[in-house]
Amino acid sequence: MTGLFKDVVIIGAGASGLGAAIRLRQAGITDFAVLEKGPALGGTWRDNTYPGCACDVPSALYSYSFAPNPSWTRAFAEQAEIQQYLEDTAARYDVVPHLRFGVELLRASWDPARAVWRLETSTGPLEARVLITATGPWHEPLMPSIPGTFDGPIFHSSRWDHSVSLAGKRVAVIGTGASAVQFVPAIQPSVASLHVFQRTAQWVLPKPDHYVPSAERWLFRTFPFAQRLLRKAEYLGMEAFGLGFRHPRLMRLVEAAGRLHLRRSVPSAALRSTLTPTYTLGCKRILMSNTYYPALAASNVSVHPTAVSGFDGGAVIGADGTRVEADVVILGTGFKILDLPIATRVHNAAGQSLADVWQGSPRAYLGTTVAGFPNAFNLLGPNLGTGHTSAFTILETQLDHVISAVSALFNRNWSTLDVRPEAQAAFVTAVQSALSGTVYESGNCTSYYHDRTGRNSFNWPWSTARLRRDISPFNESAYTITKSLEVVR
């Protein structure tokens, strides 16, 4: 065998991959590598450096439970602080030596004869007993197919071109999702004109953000229980939204707050009409901003309630015939949330990729393991997304399951773990049944929660408490287990 062998290989060094690495070390599993195709750790927080980039989950909740950060300077942390937190945490828990930067996974193939994953990477071959994919759903930009050519600079918000000065420029923004809500107010004061193309008016709620005074940070450093109490309070506040997602009628109360926020922020009745959503709040991702509406109401901003149908030299053409001359185009068009690029690279014993098996509709047992792909675990996988908790909470819940499974594999002389198809099917059926009554399915909107078959393969339909109860335990009866074979290294 040429190349290297590891007990575990993790793909991706964002929050998920780093969390997996830390938990492996805590479990006494140290023969692992984290492959990261980029030049540094951080994942989405390394990539997204657009002006105004910040978290839309409270800072105290947006962190590993085992590594609280008492030094957040804002109630909702900004990109640079989150990136620094991830770097500091990786160093603190001694996982940096396991990171391999500039190494891209090209193909992973399961070898049933030797019970190993054979990996082809950009720097050579590698083998592992266990494969953990931690590439996340907010990784690969969704680039729209727009006819024609645009003469000036054009870039996606997650690949912000900082070499392009926007000062005094005519800028067109395509898309009004979570990223645009942050960067539009950040660039509006400096541009000559800003044209925002909006296919769907979004609900935008006030953001309870504020600077965290040094005295409060001192309190958190000196008395850690104080920050734990804050984290618990923020958790309960987010869970209240979860009730509305499961009982859409409750969202009417929150919608009233959204309408009041719009009315107070936008003096023009015509613009308010353009910005008023027609779907039930929660059907799409909830957005929060105190500055987005005032930016759209500024004299140098025009909102065009239309999709973009093409480019024509220096012009952006709307589907309604609108023609806007622009110097720069910025795409705020989101990510390949459910059409994950990693799915085309991971193959079972028959040579089928995850993408082949899924056929555009991702399915996994507990959002984590897929039948026919032994010893492989997918972090932040299908049907684990919620609008009412932190990705760190979901991640740590999954890691309880994954680390228990991997530890059992190594400690109990097992060769393979492969989730039973019937266990996976039962989970998928239960989730789809429970989703039917949620706002995700009844809110009268089109969202990235639905895959290209029209099925919701993103959302978790229950509470976070149930997520922990159902996902955390490793139930070996749900898996087909084979005893250990001699692994050739």
UniProtKB/TrEMBL annotation:
Protein name, as recorded: NAD(P)/FAD-dependent oxidoreductase
Organism of provenance: Kribbella antibiotica
